[in-house]
Design brief:
Layout (H helix, E strand, L loop, with lengths): L9 H17 L3 E5 L18 H4 L2 H4 L2 H6 L1 H17 L4 H11 L5 E4 L5 H5 L4 E3 L2 E8 L5 E3 L18 E5 L8 H13 L2 E5 L10 H8 L3 E6 L12 E4 L2 H13 L3
The structure holds zinc ion.
The site of zinc ion has 7 residues, from loops.
Length: 259
């Protein structure tokens, strides 16, 4: 016998969007947790999945800090390609919607796992970058941080004034999360009463802990993802299934009427 998966009808989706907007409207503090899924529509390849860059380069071989130390030139060839993709990317309607929510007073903070700076480019002001920022390079020897645009990438690996090798100021495999971002993210998660989880499968620690921290303190979880995640049937209160670039503008359109 064939099992036909029940799909949400248009009316059901509208009802869920309305419910989500009302939760956000009533909340004291709403925090968004975003992941690769929100930037896919801007052309940035996700680690997981099979598109583009990560078909060519195995993340474990290229995105581990030991690989960069051992083979800086080889790893920088990949990093330069990634930098070019990120620098050419523009915010999509999902990033713009979150920026608009902040402007309207409906969003307190964004915790992002992305390093692409697209939330800030869209106009969001309070962004906690869990995995660092591709907009800066950091020296492996002295720790100096240098804005990306001041560094010439025509010869790789690029070097610091001290002679040390530079790396993008992002968290590689084998490196800890920046402690300041981690503490900020934990605080925001504990203090919010609605968490909006967007475009993340919520399986990578410690980012995946944030929705549980929020839920433990009584927050409601609204999830926007194309597919179900481990959160969906455990702690999610409202699951808005679809791409972030489609769902979030609809949510903001409702919120605009509630200002
Ligand atoms: Zn240095």
């Amino acid at each position: 016998m064939l099992t036909i998966r029940k799909r949400l009808g248009m009316a059901d989706m509208e009802r869920l969007l309305d419910k989500a907007a009302k939760l956000i409207r009533r909340a004291r503090a709403v925090v968004a947790l975003t992941g690769a899924g929100i930037s896919v529509e801007s052309g940035i390849p996700a680690f997981r999945g099979t598109q583009g860059l990560w078909e060519k380069y195995d993340p474990m071989e290229y995105a581990h800090i030991d690989a960069l130390r051992a083979h800086p030139e080889k790893v920088w060839r990949m990093l330069r390609e990634l930098q070019q993709i990120v620098e050419g990317a523009r915010p999509n309607p999902a990033h713009l919607s979150l920026a608009r929510m902040e402007q309207l007073g409906f969003l307190r903070a964004i915790i992002t796992q992305n390093i692409d700076h697209l939330h800030q480019d869209a106009g969001s002001r309070y962004v906690i970058e869990f995995h660092g920022s591709g907009h800066k390079l950091a020296c492996l020897s002295c720790g100096e941080r240098i804005p990306r645009h001041l560094v010439d990438l025509s010869s790789i690996p690029p070097r610091c004034f001290c002679g040390g090798i530079l790396k993008p100021d992002v968290v590689f495999f084998g490196e800890p999360i920046p402690w300041r971002a981690l503490i900020q993210a934990q605080e925001e998660s504990k203090n919010c009463d609605v968490m909006l989880v967007v475009g993340t499968s919520a399986v990578v620690a410690p980012a995946c802990d944030m929705p549980y921290l929020a839920k433990d303190r009584g927050a409601r979880i609204i999830e926007v993802n194309t597919e179900e995640t481990p959160l969906t049937r455990t702690i999610t209160d409202i699951f808005l299934q679809g791409s972030a670039g489609t769902i979030l503008p609809k949510l903001v359109a409702i919120l605009e009427t509630m200002v």
